What does this fold into?
Amino acid sequence: MAQYTRVSGFVGLITLQNPPVNALSAPVRQGIVDTVQRALSDPEVKSVVICGQNGIFCGGADIKEFGTDMFGPPLIPMIHAIEAANKPVVAAIEGIALGGGLELALGCHYRIAHSKARLGLPEVTLGLLPAAGGSQRLPRLIGVPAALNLITTGRHVTAAEALQLGIVDQVTDHNTVDAAVKFALRVGGQSLDARRISTYPCPQQPDLDALFEDVMQKVRQSARGAIAPVACVQAVRAAATLPYTQGMEREKELMATLFTSGQARALQYCFFAQRAVGRWKMPNGARWDTSKPRPVHKAAVIGLGTMGRGITVALAQTGLSVIAVESQEKQLMEAKQAVSGMLERGAKRRGVAPVLDRISYSQDIQAVADVDLVIEAVFEDMALKTKVFRQLSAVCKPGTLLCTNTSALDVDQLASETPNPELVVGMHFFAPAHVMKLLEVVYGSRSSPEAVATAMQLGKKMGKASVAVGNCRGFVGNRMLKLYLEQASFLLEEGATPELVDGALEEFGFPMGVFRMSDLSGLDVGWRIRKGEGLVEPGMASGQSARIRQGRRYSPLGDLLYEQGRFGLKTSRGWYQYDKPGSRVARSDPWVHSFLEEYRARHGLVARNIDHQEVLERCLYAMINEGFHILEDGIAAGPEDIDVIYVFGFGWPRHRGGPMFYADMVGLAKVMEKLEHYHQAHPDVPYLQPSNLLRKLVASGSPPIHTWGEVIKKLHSQL
Ligand SMILES: CC/C=C\C=C\CC(=O)SCCNC(=O)CCNC(=O)[C@H](O)C(C)(C)COP(=O)(O)OP(=O)(O)OC[C@H]1O[C@@H](n2cnc3c(N)ncnc32)[C@H](O)[C@@H]1OP(=O)(O)O
It folds into this structure.
């Protein structure tokens, strides 16, 4: 809807009304068309102001309408009518002007923004381009390089930057609508010839071809297979080289391809999934809207290794007072220096003062006596963590939340070491903890809804996509990752190389293949995890039974590399070789190839040709199948939770929506059939057998992903 009033005698004020973000739904578009017409036909009205209710201009097109039969007046003629008006139209931008919202403002003759407003064309993040003239008007207004930057990244700019770029005409700290009305009164009756952006020539740019070639190359590289950023460059190129009307034709043509693409569906699914995970629920019925978080002002971090340092930075940057505890003096000093460095670099990037004084350091666990929440981040060892939890229970004030950053260990076991197990939850951060956007909040069987709500709220404050998950080995992310890693190693045994496997996964869109990722995180880390699981047996790695552990197929390849001192990047040798320790440029290593050949010969394995398709199916479908087990077990509340975890924590390409969405796109029947095929070929790998839930979904006609919950509910009620 749009409300119309006449203010100050001569100004028609149009207010967009569609909470929460005044998205341009069909009724809003109809409202704009009607009210603009009314203002233009009223002889008393000399000028028009468009604003949004509740301090928000407009969040763009209504994303919920995409994929439905869209009705109502289309955006493009609506914006053209505003631009063509013979009375000045001023956009009063408060809060946000995003996507179609900014395109609407660009159709206005003037734009006035509040100093706290943010503007942008984020369509690319939804797999689209600004196709209501945004790709044609913005370059004409601010020049090609700046428009390319905004449109291909989708980034939001502040009002100050928008003013500097020339997107807005004025910024105010006061009431924006009042300022816009005053402005509208002043410009009423003035010529609008120079105010219609579509009539501007695109600012001249030296060597346009070279500029576009360079940008296209960079965009293709960073897009990792996403098509929208490439289409955005093509649309801006049309603005720079064609008259406006032809440019609009090109914009429409490019949008037609994007609009119905699987990538747009995936990206829009991710948008809503990211928001849906905030509405968490636990199998016992506890949920986000009935559970009250506790206030957290002061927190503590125990253990200042890599994870503890990152968590300390993340907490301090959120505005909390933090006590950072490390029992070893040397470690503590090193950590203090490292944390200060991280805070200073972060502050410099954001143009703010570093918050070093929010952190105090101590060697003594007694220092945490009065904190509201503790995050334990000591070495991944149950005995050590148990000891810390016992100490914390004795030291902390009643009601302190005790959180563990374990990546796989049993949260219930840790909780059982404390007198108040309801106050224990997992807060599983991902390295580097102050950078990575994912947080798994792990509830144990006795965690209280209040404890979960508090951890979820803290995660949100830290800017993390926080997902509540149940307690099992590896939770969601690492439980699925284990099978992905295993399949990759099996493929090496069967004839693949690290380069082939990584090539297939990087072509799929992962920023890094599995072996490059292992080199980065350290082969010693993986070895320690396997040792903790009782899988590494000294002297077994090269023996006859090396390839069977705990009754199942096992690949000791990672253990053998570890035994050679090849830990990855840190030793400059791993699955690849590196010029020096820490260098990130992975080069093929002939040693690894001969090692694999000798290994196969020793174990009587005959190398066969393996193609990219098989790599993807084996690695991804094994992981997806585990995702179905996780849903069946109730460890994740829905497929969105798994997908958000993979997109935000494991580099799953967002334009493919996450593993469960991908399975839906590929077709559940096909995923099941392939799993059956690979299980038949590898009967010693039980997890290749399709899960019960996958079978049930296929038997129910492969319903769309948003309805899987019903099948899961039915499955649970049968148990
Ligand atoms: C032929 C031409 C066709 C199409 C043209 C398309 C051009 C476009 O305009 S595409 C849309 C561009 N706009 C965006 O991408 C903005 C998306 N929204 C956001 O980035 C954020 O929501 C925000 C506006 C910055 C607000 O953030 P925050 O305050 O953190 O609140 P949220 O939790 O994110 O959102 C609240 C609530 O609003 C829903 N929502 C937000 N934007 C839209 C939208 N454009 N359409 C529909 N719904 C929207 C969001 O989903 C939340 O609701 P939930 O129920 O919680 O999901």
About this structure: The first strand starts at residue 2 and ends at 7.
